[in-house]
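Submission checklist for the structure archive. All mandatory fields must be present; incomplete records are returned to the submitter.

[x] Identifier: YHS domain-containing protein
[x] Organism: Candidatus Polarisedimenticola svalbardensis
[x] Residue count: 159
[x] Sequence attached
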Amino acid sequence: MAGKTLVLAVSVSLVLAAAAGVALAKEPVNQSALGGIAIRGIDPVAYFTDGKPAKGNKKFEVERNGAKWRFVSAGHQDLFKADPEKYAPQYGGYCAWAVSQGYTAGIDPQAWRIVDGKLYLNYSLEVQATWETDIPGFIRLADGNYPGIVAGKRSEARS
């Protein structure tokens, strides 16, 4: 009986916390639930070198920030290892516009843009069109929101 009461109390606490708007911490990298593959297995270096997304290969994999990053070649893998900050997408590969609004969302590998040498991904081409209406403003908001999102703190996003 005591076990059931404890389970009920924990369940009620979780519901009340959610209702109160307590945010749960997010993984620092957008990754698959199974296997922990970053950004849907897309090679982040390819956006810079080939000007388009490319599916990475399991043979060329690097672990970083709790996720597995895949690359199309050993050359791309080496570039990433030498300077991961240059090639890793901003906000852990979550949708840049969503982060600017205070939450995370997945990505469509086709919805991307390099701005000032940094890779930004978006949820969809439609969301990307919205993001492109004020890229500097949305980047400013997302830069402020992302640390709190990863830490599980409620954001103060404003548009």
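[x] Structure attached
Curator remark: Residues 25-151 form one domain. The CA atoms of residues 84 and 116 lie 16 Å apart.
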